[in-house]
Write a structure and sequence with these properties.
- The protein is α/β, with parallel strands linked by helices and 447 residues long.
- The chain has 3 domains: 201 residues, 3-Layer(aba) Sandwich (Rossmann fold), CATH 3.40.50.720; 87 residues, N-(1-d-carboxylethyl)-l-norvaline Dehydrogenase, domain 2, CATH 1.10.1040; 137 residues, 3-Layer(aba) Sandwich (Rossmann fold).
- The protein contains 18 helices and 14 strands.
- Strand 12, helix 17 and strand 13 form a beta-alpha-beta unit.
- Helix 1 crosses helix 3, helix 5 packs parallel to helix 6 and helix 9 packs across helix 11.
- The longest helix has 32 residues.
Length: 447
């Protein structure tokens, strides 16, 4: 099949490269000429494990190409994916200008039947808006050309997107059009040979809501556990014991019930806010979703609050090591990351930061291009020397089994504040470290 994908960001690149990898002829489109030129050279603008190799392999096989030519993009394929960004506005609602611009591009140039697929995360009713834009452009040209608008939300986890795409637990498609159903079945057939029921058809609006519902429910589980961790902190209970106790219930399970310093990334924060905004538009007060969002915002300040408490509210002139910058492991994504809230708070209070992340260092430098109060160093151990305490924001694998004695000897204090509960408090105590984590009562040795 021939496929055109508008948008060469995270969703567009993963979708395009994996569809090409099963033999399709895929053209990815972007308005950024430099990005397109780099992609043609194999320079990928995002970090996703394995993605570079998939893109390189399919470019060399001439199954995957990149362009800024909109005429070529529209004429290339019957299936036209919209995978552009929908950034949040000030009120939390999704900005639809890029989606509508692509719809206008397709409508102004199409000469034959198209299946237009919204892959971007979009509010309920977006399919109607895309149809309206297509009709407006066709009317300007006095053309009557058949087309279908389909909702096909993505459910990719950053850091595991390739595996998710190749072996999806479900593929949601919103359409009532029989021709569009046939096209989507053919498109995704290679990925669901042994699980044909994982391709789920529903109405377009239901499909659009399903994406927001999934992310909002996962965000709710995280905020719920963070809320419980704060209660456990005050009651002297151990949130890890609580987690094991409730996770063993198959109705609850262990997924997304790890307490921490808040969720981030491009999906959960944006999608919860967008669903709140959508609810507001239809005169519904989404109290639970609002609470989920507020708990998460509050949780991102917990590490700084713990830090200030440990140093009696004054950290001016002090230096702190920060391990982990990305919002989660196996990505360089810093959007809504807890580390940024922590670092900004430290800098505003007069402290300095020495930080390390396995892959997100270049992204972090974009936020602090000339900042003298934050050093980005080459290894986790480099951050420790001369620092007054260690704070952990991301649960990268290489942080899980550190040299505890090295940490103690390198820090001018023996304080570790862990936003991801990576360590056993007893082990930390045995090594003479003060260990302040999320919702666990044993703090370690005396400072």
């Amino acid at each position: 099949m021939k496929i055109t994908i508008y948008g060469s960001g995270y969703v567009g690149l993963v979708t395009g490269s994996l569809l090409a990898d099963v033999g399709n002829d895929v053209l990815c489109v972007d308005v950024d000429e430099k990005k397109v030129a780099n992609l043609k050279k194999g320079i990928v603008p995002i970090f996703e494990p394995g993605l570079d190799d998939v893109i390189k392999r399919n470019v060399e096989a001439q199954r995957l190409d990149f362009t800024t030519d909109m005429d070529l993009a529209v004429s290339h394929a019957e299936v036209q994916f919209i995978a552009v960004g929908t950034p949040p506005g000030e009120d939390g609602s999704a900005d639809m200008q890029y989606v509508e611009a692509v719809a206008g591009t397709i409508g102004s140039r199409m000469t034959e039947n198209k299946v237009v697929v919204t892959k971007s995360t979009v509010p309920v009713g977006t399919g109607d808006r895309v149809e309206k834009r297509l009709n407006e452009e066709l009317a300007k040209r006095k053309e009557t050309i058949p087309y279908s608008v389909v909702s096909n939300p993505e459910f990719l986890k950053e850091g595991a997107a390739i595996a998710d795409f190749r072996k999806p637990d479900r593929i949601v498609v919103g359409t009532d059009d029989e021709r569009a159903k046939e096209v989507m079945q053919e498109l995704y057939g290679p990925f669901i040979r042994n699980r044909p029921n994982s391709l789920v058809f529903m109405s377009r609006r239901s499909s659009e809501l399903t994406k927001y519902a999934a992310n909002s429910l996962l965000a709710t589980k995280i905020s719920f556990m963070n809320e419980l961790s704060n209660i456990a902190d005050r009651l002297g209970a151990d949130i890890e014991d609580v987690r094991m106790g409730i996770g063993s219930d198959p109705r609850i399970g262990y997924h997304f019930i790890y307490p921490g310093c808040g969720y981030g990334g491009s999906c959960f924060p944006k999608d919860v806010k967008a669903l709140i905004a959508t609810s507001r538009d239809v005169n519904y007060d989404a109290q639970l979703l609002t609470a989920v969002d507020e708990v998460n915002d509050r949780q991102k300040h917990v590490l700084f609050e713990k830090l200030m408490k440990q140093f009696n509210g004054d950290i001016k002139g002090m230096t702190f090591a920060v391990w982990g910058l990305s919002f989660k492991p196996n990505t360089d994504d810093l959007r809504e990351a807890a580390s940024r809230v922590l670092i900004e708070s430290i800098l505003e209070a007069g402290g300095k930061v020495r930080a390390y992340d396995p892959v997100a260092m270049n992204e972090m430098r974009h936020f602090y291009p000339d900042e003298k109060r934050i050093e980005l160093l080459g290894t986790a151990h480099d951050c420790l020397d001369g620092s007054d305490a260690l704070l952990i924001c991301t649960e990268w694998q290489e942080f899980r089994s550190p040299d505890y004695d090295l940490i103690k000897n390198a820090l001018s204090s023996n304080l570790v504040i862990d936003g991801r509960n990576l360590y056993d408090p007893k082990i930390m105590k045995d090594h003479g470290l003060v260990y302040d984590c999320i919702g666990r009562p044993e703090r370690g040795a005396a400072a």
